[in-house]
Design goal:
Number of domains: 1
Bound molecules: fe (ii) ion
Number of strands: 0
Shape: elongated
Distance between the termini: 30 Å
Helix content: over 70%
Radius of gyration: 18 Å
């Protein structure tokens, strides 16, 4: 199993949790909403830390940088805001917003970052094989898509787009 497959498996396990929390949040009181946020935080943090440690270094040199907090940092801060909320409505609004943001972040990873990382691995592994030319072509296509469409996260690596050349 590759790291990408492991991360995708974690996404698959987290989606039902998102579904359940979204359903329960509609009628939940403040203490329950805070409990949901704490549960989400405990599961998402380990997932995000794994991505930061293993995935980001793979794609960081090729992904355009933008200023500001990373998606992971924004999600974590949003869950902290739920914990600090003083009313059920405030906590619910924040919690549902963070879940929507997390779903969007997962989509971005699954449709771009993971694809990119997988292609990069394929390209690296097949450099000396007869498939090299084709793999390299796929890699370039995905690289172009990633650089033109989005970024996974702001990185602390401080490389610029020119480094991808
Ligand atoms: Fe992530
Ligand atoms: Fe993820």
């Amino acid at each position: 199993m590759t790291i990408i497959e492991a991360l995708l498996g974690e996404h698959g396990a987290l989606y039902p949790l998102f579904d359940r929390i979204e359903a329960l949040a509609q009628k939940a009181e403040l203490p329950e909403l805070k409990l949901h946020a704490a549960l989400l935080e405990s599961t998402l943090i380990s997932h995000a830390d794994l991505e930061d440690a293993l995935l980001r270094p793979e794609i960081q040199p090729y992904v355009p940088l933008t200023p500001g907090p990373t998606d992971h940092e924004q999600i974590r801060a949003g869950l902290k805001r739920v914990g600090a909320a003083v009313s059920g409505d405030e906590a619910r609004r924040c919690l549902l917003g963070i879940l929507a943001q997390t779903r969007a972040h997962f989509w971005k990873e699954e449709s771009i970052a993971f694809v990119f990382a997988r292609r990069r691995c394929l390209w690296s592994c097949s450099r000396n094989s007869p498939r090299n030319r084709r793999a390299s072509g796929e890699y370039r296509l995905v690289e172009a898509a990633v650089c033109g469409a989005t970024r996974m996260d702001r990185s602390a690596g401080d490389r610029n787009e020119g480094d991808a050349q």
